[in-house]
Amino acid sequence: MKNQINLFTMGFTKKSAKNFFETLKKAGVKRVIDTRLNNVSQLSGFAKRSDLEYFLKTIDDIDYVHILDLAPTKDILDEYKKQKGDWSIYEQKFLKLIADRQIEKKLSPDLADGACLLCSEAKPHHCHRRLVAEYLNNKWGNVSICHL
């Protein structure tokens, strides 16, 4: 196993396309791992799945992969977002979900190294991408996490 896995995370909201793609390029990201449950919404703008995949490849030869097992379920997401749920409850439910899914076996360290976990939240504090990154570090023990 590699000594260290460099894993980035980033949300696309409150970022211009220019800022988003330049940030990925500057960080040296090799692939974007989309962790969103819904990545085809018109609200996603430039980060809509088919557009994003094209832009990443064309602008900086960055690979794109969507791993649905890294996303929350609709029930967990709706309870938190639509019903203004408590973050600690969301966090608890999501961590149980990814543990049950054994995401550390569905995502290889090689795929994670140099990758950026993508979601919509502007900041990582109340975001499932941070939970995914921290969970993987707890399982693998050698993940350096950088929130872009």
UniProtKB/TrEMBL annotation:
InterPro entries: DUF488. This is DUF488 domain-containing protein. It comes from Candidatus Synechococcus calcipolaris G9.
